[in-house]
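Lecture 7 notes: from sequence to structure.

We start with a single chain of 287 residues. Read the sequence below before looking at the structure.
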Amino acid sequence: MTEHDEPTSTNPSEIEALIARLKHGSLNNHDTLLVERLLRLLLTLIRVVEQKNISISRLKRLLFGPGSDKRTVVVATAPSNASGNDAPSATDESSEPTARAESQVAEQTPRRGHGRQSAVAYPGARRVACIDPELMPGDCCPSHPCCGHLYDTKAPAVFIRLEGRPVIAATRYEQQVLRCSACAERFTAPLPEGVPAEKYDPTADVSIALYKYGAGMPFYRQARLQAMVGVPLPESVQYERCARVAECARPVYEELDQFSLDCMEGHRALPRGQRCRGVGPSGGVVV
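Now the structure, written as tokens:
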């Protein structure tokens, strides 16, 4: 799309003013540019509707222009009276709604982030390009009723997988995304064979647990070390992964615990002379 093909949005008030000038026959030089802008906008809308693959956000930008920033609540202060005795009371009354409005704005402000690390936060990750073995750009759309063709979106689906090594290492899998020009359906290339779609490899979970409870390295030190190698691993995530390892080992622990209880009960049930007290120097059992 060239520079002239990308029109700028027009204010509705400008269009209404143009219609009024057309009715009165009082057009000026500026109206020529405005009419040209409207006609180019119409041609662009016709073209993108025929393509059938325009996004709703782009169509809104073409029709209404880029969105403006959210306005903050502005509270006007009450004017002070002429007399000096009433001035302090007016100030107190105006400060109350101002503080109330500020608290409402603070409550309405959405919390930033979702607690997960984005793909760009892993600069030390090894990159692996995933190409679809069955589909290629230019192929016919595999959806049955569609007769369109696929094209490369140049925006791969990024999948991060962490594995346990001397430090926790990350691999960035960039899965090729093909999109149909007719039905706009997306087709993502699969991960390499043997790579499950799970972010944390079991070796990563075991390594975190060994660093913490085997080597005595606190979570915050592990987080600092991981940040140095470009693979962030927050303390809260480390705790969650260690809890996952503990849940996997819980059945073994419970079975050993029950086995020890059974042995103690059987040992107490034996007569005192037949109870095992230990192993002698020659390897025999001492009773």
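Residues 12-64 form one domain. Keep this in mind for problem set 3.
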